[in-house]
Amino acid sequence: MSRPDAFADALPALPSRTGSRRARLWRMLKPLRWLARRFLALMLAAVILFGWILNPPTTWTIVSEGVSTPRKWTRAADIAPVMLRSVVAAEDANFCRHWGFDMAEIRRVIARGESRGASTLTQQTAKNVYLWQGRSWPRKALETIYTPMIEAVWSKRRILEVYLNVAEFGPGVFGIHAAAAHHFGTTPDKLSARQAAALAAVLPAPKTRAAQTRSARARAIADGAATIQRDGRAACFQDG
Predict the structure, then answer these.
(1) Are 233 and 93 within 8 A, CB to CB?
(2) Among 87, 117, 183, 224, which is 20 to 30 Å from 215 by CA?
(3) Cβ neighbours of residue 172 closer than 8 Å, sequence gap 6 or more
(4) Spatial separation of the C-alpha atoms in residues 26 and 20, rounded to whole Å
């Protein structure tokens, strides 16, 4: 006499309800996965476009806020090297040592319970060029995707060049050419160490801070710019 379990073993296996639900969910998500891949491809194309082919002609922030001082794109080679060092010293001293996110600084901010951000220059460039101002989770999520793409495709020097050409240095004053003319009546290649430090000092709050060469923050930035030149933290973006 055959055993009941032997008879059961002979029956074809029926798909489990869990497996069936997973299959249906996978089919439902297929169009979303297709859209996500295309969206990421478009983001990468935009990074390649402004990294290798074109200079960003404008940004959402510039269009929405308007320009009070004429803008002119300035190549990194035509910007005083001390200006490049000053903005790194002021905004992202470990710029040459990270891949877009300064994890050590992020951990330090979290450990101290500080409310300030720990955005790198690459993150700020991603936000300024491709996104919008203000804090929101969608913007931060897109910034987090753009940042490693920029680091992978652009050189560190290109990141600084783009950043300095779209950053706001005062109400309606966008880009280093307009900043040098507006604040000091000069051109980017002729900026002194003090002037460069003063311009870098306004970046966190360009609408409220003045470019003062003798301010405590400007002096600290000038010292920081000299320090990163000595210790090699400026090596990744210095010409030659």
Answers:
(1) yes
(2) 117
(3) 65, 66, 67, 68, 69
(4) 10
Contact 228, 93 (CB under 8 A): yes
DSSP string, 80-135: -HHHHHHHHHHH-TTGGGSSS--HHHHHHHHHHT--S----HHHHHHHHHHS-SS-
* pLDDT one-digit tens code per residue, 190-199: 999 999 999 9
Q: By the 8 A CB rule, do 159 and 92 touch?
A: no
Residue 210, phi then psi, degrees to nearest 5: -100, 150
Q: How far apart are CA 67 and CA 59, in angstroms?
A: 11
Q: Enter the tokens of residue 201.
A: 């000092």
Of 197, 217, 203, nearest to 84 by C-alpha is: 197
Q: Which residues pair with 173 in a beta bridge?
A: 170
Amino acid at 189: D
- pTM exceeds 0.70, yes or no: yes
pLDDT in tens, 74-107: 999 999 999 999 999 999 999 999 999 988 887 8
Name residue, tokens 């507006």.
182
> Measured between alpha carbons, how far is 75 from 82 in angstroms, rounded to an integer?
14
Top pLDDT among 110 and 103 is at 103
In tens, the pLDDT along 197-237 reads: 999 999 999 999 999 999 999 999 999 999 999 999 999 99
